[in-house]
Amino acid sequence: MADWLEEARLDLVFDVRDTRSAQGRLEMHVKRVTLDDLVLFHGHACDGLLRGAYAMRALGDVAFDGGPFDRSDLEVVSKNSPCLGDVAAYLTGGRLRFGTHRLDDSLGVGFVVREVSTGRTWEVREELGFFPALIGAWEAALLDDDLVDSGSLRAADKVELIAVNEARQWTWVREVLLASRPSDHYIVQLLEGVELPAPIHRARRSDVVNRDAPVPEQYVSPYEPLMGSGGLPRGGEGSLWELRYDEGPPQFARER
Ligand SMILES: [Zn+2]
Question: Residue 235: phi, psi to the nearest 5?
Fold first, then answer.
């Protein structure tokens, strides 16, 4: 990664929180997602990923007061952009298959994020005119096969223009975006009474079923320190709760 992008990644970080396992309660400890992580997940660094990260940072600073994104409790709406969609899914935990990542192309560069437990909903949008219209027009044109098919754009010219487009995107990121703060051009507001777009398809999300279970009072797993609690194991193996577990769940016990 270039030096100037290396510098940017120091600021652009996101703390996230998840459940502890597929049946687990909410983990109170947070993990830090960096720009490098976003790039690895997405597959490349690009202006869309950076603009999405700026937008999400601005939203998180207002909605969560700079605190962690609880990926077990968020639904997100994004445009159907590979880059913005990946930022949305990775940072909020929203997934198409759970119906918690919905699509709305009218959002442009921005997101709607809803906290499931409270229903509170925020929107962030990039300020109109912040991104150069010329680059935006080329981005759309270079994805439009009709231009070549109809003879409006020579295929050989397109190859060159793809490279120019990429250079212009990075120059804008370097000189304009990274010289600004997320709150400068990404505007956050709390929304009242909005309906999210319909999910494309939906299947049950199981890893948040027990997210609100309290910390156990008696049984502490010997693995607990590994999970980051910092506490020492107390009354783990051989306890009454392990014996109860060995009997199997109710259905299992009846069937034996
Ligand atoms: Zn991208």
Answer: 55, 55
**157 Cα–ligand 1 center, Å:** 22
Residues in the chain: 256
Q: What's the predicted TM-score (pTM) here?
A: 0.88
Cα 37 from Cα 31, distance rounded (Å)? 12
H helix and E strand count, the chain: 10, 8
Distance 49 CA to ligand 1 centre (A): 5
Q: Are 127 and 185 in contact (CB under 8 A)?
A: yes
**Domain residue spans in the chain?**
3-129+181-191, 218-248
* Structural domain 3-129+181-191, CATH architecture: 2-Layer Sandwich (3.30)
Question: In 3D, which of 10, 48, 16 has the Cα closest to residue 32?
Answer: 16
Give the pLDDT confidence of 13-67 residue by residue, as tens digits: 999 999 999 999 999 899 999 999 999 999 999 999 999 999 999 999 999 999 9
∠108-48-127 over CA atoms, to 5°?
A: 45
